[in-house]
Write a structure and sequence with these properties.
- The chain has 254 residues and is an alpha+beta fold.
- The protein has a domain at 122-252.
- It has helices spanning 2-26, 248-252, and strands spanning 54-55, 61-62, 81-83, 90-92, 122-129, 135-142, 148-150, 155-158, 166-167, 177-179, 184-190, 202-204, 207-210, 233-235, 240-241.
- The chain has a five-stranded mixed β-sheet. Strands 1-2 form a two-stranded antiparallel ribbon.
- β1 and β2 form a beta hairpin.
- The longest helix has 25 residues, at 2-26.
- The chain is globular, with a radius of gyration of 57 Å.
């Protein structure tokens, strides 16, 4: 029995020595432990440097980072929109503003409306002439501040006359007579036949000159009552008028 007890004591002592040896190895003071795990070293891959901005053929500048790629388009002519896909910004080319103007002319209301010459914005005078024989000249002067138009021919009425003198169609002008402020227009009047072929001759003491509108025989506004010579004006059934003329000679040479 003593022998068996000694054997167990020796076995226990050997186990304790082995444990101490193992502890010393783990603390770096003893023999290397072959079963210990080896340390590993991880190699890091260096980060690639950011590429430098690249200039495109169109003059735009793009910026890329990492592996991202993009196309930069420069500002061109015209009204298109240029977009840099790297930065997400866009720029628009300036658009020139061209003012457009509307010409003045016919219309209703406002300063662009057509203004007719009549007794409210013009002065009207008459002058009997010896040459051409039995003729009279009507002169209309624009006294307004805007250009006015003399349309067709004057409508004449002596005293209580019940008929309207007809125009001489051969005097029809190429364009409507237009009077700027201060300018004058003219119409010629044949009062009576030189050969005495006219009938119903009488002397007029009062004359009313009426104006036509933009369509024949329509009203052109206020009439005028120019002064006649004190002895009056003789006329007969030959009474005719010219269309309104821009030139005085055109009103008389017919």
């Amino acid at each position: 029995m003593r022998t068996a007890r000694r054997v167990r004591l020796l076995a226990a002592t050997g186990a304790a020595v082995a444990a101490l040896a193992l502890t010393a190895c783990e603390n770096g003071t003893g023999a290397r432990d072959e079963g210990a795990s080896r340390s590993t070293t991880t190699e890091s891959t260096p980060t690639a440097a950011a590429p430098k901005p690249s200039e495109t053929a169109d003059g735009g500048t793009g910026t890329g980072t990492g592996t991202a790629t993009g196309t930069a388009t420069g500002t061109g002519t015209g009204t298109g929109t240029d977009t840099d896909t790297d930065t997400g910004k866009s720029t628009s080319a300036p658009v020139s503003d061209t003012a457009t103007k509307t010409p003045s002319g016919g219309g209703s209301g406002g300063k662009s409306a057509t203004v007719l010459c009549n007794g409210s914005n013009s002065t009207v005078t008459v002058q009997p002439l010896s040459r051409p024989l039995n003729h009279m000249l009507i002169t209309v002067k624009n006294t307004g501040s805007r250009t006015c138009y003399l349309t067709y021919y004057p409508v004449l009425r002596f005293d209580e006359m019940q008929w309207v003198p007809q125009p001489a169609e051969e005097t029809h002008p190429q364009a409507v007579t237009t009077l700027a402020p201060g300018e004058s227009g003219y119409a010629g009047v044949l009062l009576s036949a030189a050969d005495g072929s006219g009938d119903g001759g009488t002397t007029g003491r009062k004359l009313v000159v009426a104006f036509q509108g933009m369509s024949p025989n329509s009203s052109g506004g206020a009439s005028a009552t120019p002064s006649l010579p004190a002895k009056g004006v003789y006329y007969d059934s030959s009474l005719r008028v010219t269309y309104w003329q821009q030139d005085r000679n055109d009103a008389l040479n017919w």
